[in-house]
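[READ THE FOLD]
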Amino acid sequence: MLILPIRTDTQFRRTPAVNYFLIIANVLIFLVVDVFSGRPMPTGLALWKRQYMLDPENLSVIQFFSYQFLHGDLMHLLGNMLFLWVFGNAVNSKMGHVTYLLFYLACGVFAGLGFSLGGTSPCLGASGSIAGITTAFLVLFPRTHVTVVYWFVWFIGTAQIQALLLIVVKIILWDNILAPSLAGGRDYVSVAYSAHIAGYIFGFLCCALMLLIRALPRDQYDIIAMGKRYYQRQQYRAMMADPNVRAQMAYGRVARPVAAESGEVVEAAPEPDGDVVRLRSEIAEQLESEDYEGAATRYAALLSHDSKQCLPRRQMLDVANHLMRTAKYPQAAEAYEKFLKHYPSDGEAQQVQLVLGILYAKYLEEYEKAQRCLNDSLKRLTNPDLIRQATEWLESVTASLGRRGPRTAS
């Protein structure tokens, strides 16, 4: 069964110009060295190509870079460029141009080192570099869906597969570990699996490290955020295993207020609303199982019982983000406002203010509120890309307010 990725649903923040350049460079070098030179290849050009392959028995520093731009044949080139196009564009857009170029070359160098440790035959191709780009995509966009073309006997069609499943199970485990083992190593000589594995490892670890030290902008969809949410769910399960904790979560503290001077009870504590307790518990369970639509539905029911209800910070943000993604903009704005009111010092508050400002400006056309949110976000943002985005939207909002003119009292 043949499965080939053809595109992802990732949105680009910037044009992936460096990835375009790398694809063009690989194609041009192949055309010059392998096509336009004629067949059979002139002796001098053949020697030149052999000299700049990665040769473990005759290594030089330049080979660790030059071998990344040489290919064995047209199918080798097309396969590599397809994967570079599908996964590289989004990674380039996320990393920026200089960082992406250095990262791409570093992946190729590390893949070459991995191959040189055990290989004896020469190696060429961009596969090691692209392996690192593929796992970088996995780190940055694990929940993204990848559209693939499948071909099984006479069945041909397309399907969408989550990036985490496609890259880990199909591309890494099956294509590079299980399938070669089942084949008994018959094609190992023609495919540098050790270079692929080294590239995968370097790309994953290096990209994850850049996220951890915030050399790359973080968001709630990267693999670090997924890991944190998984850890929080495990903590929640362990905590809720204690019946005393479950009782406290359901009923809170049973307190009876007293007068400061006499010490007498002034009023009885209100009984907990059973529907509110039930709905909050169901929202937590739905979010834990990643049923965001069900959680949003129960959140709306919760507000109908008590409009002042606010969820724990992570739950509140997950529900607000889902409302935003499903184009329920007024409800999303209300949820974001509630998050900022109850968690003003949260680490993600500055990004929430930016998103809320854009929401007010782009979808709700409430420019005064948009201006307030964007101004507040600019006071706290530190990421240059987010600052630029907030500034551009603030200029647009200010211009819209100017065109509309001052309001008059009716």
